[in-house]
């Protein structure tokens, strides 16, 4: 079960209704939140993907369960413009190298769990940014933490939070999954 | 102003008579790029319906006032929505009834000619997909060759003309579309023929379509003589009818020739294809009318939509019949066009090994036909 902020039931509806309804439903979502669109129209996958790209939203993927297609889309947010503040930064390529060299490291993926489900670095641990505070005590403060998100901004915020909470070795991975060329895994079929 | 439906039959007439039409295709760009309604004098604008949800004001200026405008989508729903939005701005437009799904499934029957002992030969033009199938009728009996999946077209036509379908044949195991042959034969209680060499893996009973064998249609008047012409598939067989018509299947088309790679054996079958085209057909009477199982471009549609040419004419102008051996090999093995969508699943379905439901069959057939090679 993939977590989403809103579930839209568009089952049994023919084109164009799944997209028309998704467009409306997106208005009620906050930036960065995830919607699950349930549809049975086979054409909805290609259309929803093309529409999301066009609107600047982030199409995460589709899970097929028998007749039902569950599409996941993350609403665009203004995250891309912010300056990064956390001083310790590595590039994607540097992280790939470090992962080959080191054994004791924690790759912390702070994207929404739906984003993580469709595409993540093998062995990365998922703690969405919004849940970081409540889960922070479950993480080892002495660990060498590499924080990753889609473009490096949410991970920047998370890195600052971890540093303030007493984590000593925290590094932000920039840009992160949007340009990741290394290995990936999926938590869904 | 107004929104009216336009049927696939009406659009077909416009393609055949080379009329003008402005098509506003509201499917996504990938779908449009892959496959659209082709017409020699058609103009196109492709804007996905989801870009028009906030209004059509931006595209109104791009639509002509002096031409019919047809809004097209996959299944009709989105085109109705966009057509209604356009009508609210004061335009009169049409939408395609049934969308591209209906376009893909429509067959236009075209009479090719009469048979010597009475009866007629009809070509069924599947205009949206470029497939051609045939009905040879004599004395109230008929054989259907290379039937499309939508067998009701043949049944309706037969009923309206008091014709009994006695035989159904496929010239080869098709890879680009799902054959309606076996289904039609079962429905009408007729015999289903397929070349035995293409049927080694099929899981149902069939009659062998083999050289030297004759199928009688309507007493003794029409004799369908199969002619073994391997190349597109190992078993590909042509049919000779009435010493006048040559049904070439996917071996020879009007403007191109068949591709030998769809069963994964291009290299092995190059020589067979060459022999069929350059030797076996050459020995036949040049006056024979070639009737292929496909056309590639709407420019191949002649009078009333018929797709045909004499064998002699093809030896003069079809480039695929006029190549040196090495150039021929290059043409049919290198730089082949992309393979048809789902062609492997389609082959499995035609062998009876896969049993997709109707919706799945439709999905498998979506897209353009790619059975020919072109220069």
From TrEMBL, chain A:
The superkingdom listed in its UniProt entry is: Bacteria
InterPro entries found in the cross-reference section: GlpE_sulfurtransferase, Rhodanese-like_dom, Rhodanese-like_dom_sf, TusA-like, TusA-like_sf
For the Rhodanese domain, which residue ranges apply? 101-186
Q: What is this protein called?
A: Rhodanese-related sulfurtransferase/TusA-related sulfurtransferase
Q: Which organism is it from?
A: Peribacillus deserti
UniProtKB/TrEMBL annotation, chain B:
Report the residue ranges that make up the Rhodanese domain in this protein: 17-111
Positions the record marks as coiled coil are: none
InterPro entries reported in the protein's UniProt record: Metallo-B-lactamas (IPR001279), Mito_Persulfide_Diox (IPR051682), POD-like_MBL-fold (IPR044528), Rhodanese-like_dom (IPR001763), Rhodanese-like_dom_sf (IPR036873), RibonucZ/Hydroxyglut_hydro (IPR036866)
Per the record, which residues fall in region Disordered? 354-375
Pfam families, per this entry? Lactamase_B, Rhodanese
Q: Write down what this protein is called.
A: Glyoxylase-like metal-dependent hydrolase (Beta-lactamase superfamily II)
């Amino acid at each position: 079960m993939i977590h989403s902020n809103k579930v839209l039931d568009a089952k049994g509806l023919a084109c164009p209704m799944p997209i028309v309804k998704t467009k409306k439903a997106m208005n009620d979502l906050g930036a960065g939140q995830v919607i699950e669109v349930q549809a049975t129209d086979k054409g909805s996958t290609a259309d929803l993907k093309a529409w999301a790209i066009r609107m600047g939203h982030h199409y995460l993927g589709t899970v097929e369960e028998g007749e039902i297609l569950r599409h996941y889309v993350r609403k665009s947010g203004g995250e891309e413009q912010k300056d990064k503040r956390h001083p310790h930064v590595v590039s994607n390529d540097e992280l790939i190298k470090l992962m080959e060299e080191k054994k004791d490291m924690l790759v912390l993926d702070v994207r929404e769990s739906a984003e993580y489900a469709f595409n993540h670095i093998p062995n990365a641990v998922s703690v969405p940014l919004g849940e970081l505070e409540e889960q922070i005590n479950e993480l080892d403060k002495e660990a060498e933490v590499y924080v990753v998100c889609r473009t490096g901004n949410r991970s920047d915020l998370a890195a600052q939070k971890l540093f303030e909470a007493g984590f000593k070795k925290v590094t932000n991975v920039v840009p992160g999954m949007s340009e990741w060329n290394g290995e990936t895994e999926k938590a869904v079929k | 102003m107004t929104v009216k439906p336009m049927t696939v039959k009406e659009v077909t007439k416009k393609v055949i008579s080379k009329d003008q039409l402005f098509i506003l295709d509201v499917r996504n760009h990938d779908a449009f790029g892959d496959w659209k309604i082709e017409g020699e004098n058609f103009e196109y604008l492709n804007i996905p319906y989801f870009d028009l949800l906030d209004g059509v004001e931006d595209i109104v200026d791009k639509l002509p006032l002096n031409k019919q405008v047809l809004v097209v989508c996959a299944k009709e729903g989105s085109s109705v929505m966009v057509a209604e939005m356009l009508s609210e701005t004061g335009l009169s437009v049409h939408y395609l009834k049934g969308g591209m799904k209906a376009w893909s499934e429509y067959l236009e029957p075209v009479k090719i000619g009469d048979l010597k002992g009475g009866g007629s030969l009809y070509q069924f033009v599947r205009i949206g997909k470029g497939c051609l199938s045939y009905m040879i009728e004599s004395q109230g009996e008929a054989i259907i060759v290379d039937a499309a999946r939508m067998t009701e077209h043949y049944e309706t036509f037969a009923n309206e003309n008091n014709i009994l379908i006695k035989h159904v044949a496929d010239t080869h195991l098709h890879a680009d579309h799902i054959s309606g042959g076996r289904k039609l034969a079962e429905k009408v209680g007729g015999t289903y023929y397929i070349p035995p060499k293409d049927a080694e893996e099929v899981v149902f009973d069939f009659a062998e379509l083999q050289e030297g064998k004759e199928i009688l249609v309507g007493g003794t008047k029409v004799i369908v003589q199969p002619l073994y012409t391997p190349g597109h598939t190992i078993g590909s067989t042509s049919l000779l009818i009435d010493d006048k018509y040559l049904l070439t299947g996917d071996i020879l088309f009007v403007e191109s020739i068949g591709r030998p790679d769809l069963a994964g054996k291009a290299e092995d079958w190059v020589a067979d294809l060459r022999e069929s085209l350059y030797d076996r057909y050459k020995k036949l009477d040049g006056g024979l009318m070639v009737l292929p199982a496909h056309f590639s471009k709407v420019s191949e549609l002649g009078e009333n939509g018929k797709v045909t040419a004499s064998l002699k004419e093809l030896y003069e102008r079809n480039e695929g019949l006029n190549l040196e051996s090495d150039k021929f090999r290059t043409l049919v093995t290198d730089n082949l066009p992309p393979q048809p969508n789902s062609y492997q699943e389609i082959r499995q379905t035609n062998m009876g090994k896969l049993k997709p439901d109707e919706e799945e069959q439709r999905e498998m057939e979506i897209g353009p036909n790619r059975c020919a090679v072109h220069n």
